[in-house]
């Protein structure tokens, strides 16, 4: 598993999804209205095969994508 930490400058709707290399959503971690501040979400990758994934964090302010490699 891995922890994803992110900060919001102001309250915002936040969506965090994990995608495989084919662009399919393999996990939806957050879909909620959150207050300003630092937040942490946990992704348990136990049920996905090894490989590269992308985590997309979307808020009202911005969209950020990060590459994650799962190794077992």
Features:
single chain; 72 residues; mainly beta; four-stranded antiparallel sheet; two-stranded antiparallel ribbon; elongated
What is the compact description of this entry?
With 72 residues, the protein is mainly beta. 0% of the residues lie in helices and 67% in strands.
Question: How do the helices and strands line up, and which of them pair or pack?
Answer:
Blueprint: E1 2-8, E2 12-19, E3 25-34, E4 37-43, E5 51-58, E6 63-70
Antiparallel strand pairs: 1-4, 2-3, 2-5, 5-6
What do you see in this structure?
The protein is mainly beta and 72 residues long. The chain has no helices and 6 strands. Strands 3-2-5-6 form a 4-stranded antiparallel beta sheet, with no helix packed on it. Strand 2 and strand 3 form a beta hairpin. It is elongated and about 35 Å long.
Rounded to the nearest angstrom, the distance between the terminal CA atoms is: 10 Å
Order of helices and strands: EEEEEE
Biggest pleated sheet: 4 strands, antiparallel
Shape: elongated
């Amino acid at each position: 598993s891995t922890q994803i930490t992110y900060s919001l400058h102001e309250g915002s709707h936040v969506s965090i999804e994990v995608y495989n290399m084919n662009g399919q959503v393999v996990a939806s971690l957050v879909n909620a209205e959150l207050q300003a501040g630092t937040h942490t979400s946990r992704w348990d990758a136990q049920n996905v095969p090894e490989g590269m994934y992308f985590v997309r964090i979307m808020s009202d302010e911005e969209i950020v994508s990060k590459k994650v490699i799962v190794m077992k």
